[in-house]
Write a structure and sequence with these properties.
Number of strands: 23
Pfam family, one: PepX_C
Radius of gyration: 24 Å
Distance between the termini: 42 Å
Bound molecules: benzoic acid
Organism: Pseudonocardia zijingensis
Helix content: 10-25%
Number of helices: 16
Domain Xaa-Pro dipeptidyl-peptidase C-terminal: 319-574
Keywords: Hydrolase
GO molecular function, one term: hydrolase activity
Length: 587
Amino acid sequence: MTFVVEVDVPVPMRDGVELATNVWRPEGPGPFPALLVRTPYGKDDAGTFGNPKLPDVFAFVEAGYAVVAQDVRGTSRSQGTFVPHASEGGDGVDTLEWLAAQSWCDGAVGMWGGSYMGFAQWQAAVGGAPALRAIAPVMSSADPYGAPWYSPGGALSQDAVLTWGTLSALRNLRRAGGDGVASDVGALTAGLADPRLLHDPLPVAERDAMTRHLPWVREVLAHPERDEFWRGIAAIDRCDRITVPALHVGGWYDVFIGETVRSYTMMRRHGGSAEAREGQRLIIGPWSHADGTDLGTFPDRSFGLGGSIKAADITAAHLRFFDRWVRGRADVPDDEHRVRIFVMGVDRWRAEADWPLPDTRYADFFLAGNGRANTAAGDGVLTCDGASVEAADTFLYDPRRPVPTVGGTVLAAVPGAYPGPADQAAVESREDVLCFTTAVLERPLEVTGHVTLVLHVSSSAPDTDFTGKLVDVHPGGEAILLCEGVQRARYRRSLTRPELLEPGAVHDLTIDLGVTSNVFLPGHRIRLEVSSSNFPRYDRNTNTGGAIAADGEDELAVAVNRVHHGPARPSRLVLPVIERPGAEVQR
Ligand code: BEZ
């Protein structure tokens, strides 16, 4: 097909700042419905739209849509200053209104794009512009505190903040000409080449080369609680103002996955119109955020051809969704099932009526043993029968020697590892990692949904972290990570009203371990790992009870941490079990 391209159209915002915008539209007068993407990564950069996790722009034009790509304020060829999240609401609404007024546009617009491009959609959707009919955030979040910058348990997502902060600071610096700051370029690029240089130095808040070019990072580190700084940009807190359907796409190993799923469930319950509540759709595959994992193939685990993004046909899903909601074609069935998930273990796609799956049964798996659960060779047991004796497992958490991140929902590859389903052997041999494992399974057990861990803990410190990981132990011994989480003790009751621990006293806390879908096959075992760090996926708790990001090397304290279990202190892993009698379970 032939189409018309307009490059760098200046679109004026309410304060006079002009945002550079490209338009690809089918030949002819139209009018056409439009699909808008707003990006900080360069609308002219083939890499921005060549990412296989995003739909194919040309298929959109071929289907009769005008595709509109804009550089967000302060990036690439747009005017203004880039302050992440600060202007996406107003600029999004102004752009939607401009689009609706163009002669070639029929007044109906959908928004699309991944990650930051997803934040831009959520923030624009809150503004309620009548032209906006649907959004399609891929691997993104409507609550930037919960993901990607902090986490539901209040720990900083250090890798995401510092890696993305470095890349964005470098983009800002280059856009400004980069004069006189060659040393900053050197420091920033060195940090990307060797993540130890990026992550190890303390205090975390002292990142001058980065904050000189992206002062916003300083703000992020100064707001460890979910205060007004975060609530002001959390579209999820204003779900009732969002009146459009959303197509959510996520990856089980994506840094955003918890919030991707929460956006879906919150919009299903609290969306601002019947259409919004009914029109939510969710697709989750075995992918991480990193480029190149869209094939569903990782060094320690391959999900087969069906795990690839191609098998999910993201472009077709977007087209069905936009035809239904932007074109308003009620005759186009936009997926008869609301939810499509890739079930790991059996490595198959499955359609579901909703999320969480309506037939979920939450089952307790109790932590048990005689107090020597340290390492995978210890005596830690996970049992449905309940622990019969009171015991406690003890480990030293030394922030100078944190447990290294091995796979999972980390944003970037860290030394010796990659985001995704990595074998945990290297961390399970550490004395500061407790392991609780079931007997070998005789029958398949499906776990699909939200995983939580309830712990009774004590610490010698006034504040510390507790981490958990759910692991599928294969018959050959490989311990493949499924999902994970962390709880900062001071935030165990509230993300806005911290409460320190009473050293030595037993407290209970609940850790959100995220979501997964996995069939533990016969011959496999279910394992829970508990520790106090997962670095640099999360920042290290310094164990002082003070402002963690401001603590230096000299302030770090070692904590003696304990997990109690038994009839009086039933520490337990709560798994979302799916039992469907007669359902075929095979690979
Ligand atoms: C992204 O756009 O890919 C992204 C944005 C924020 C944090 C991490 C990734």
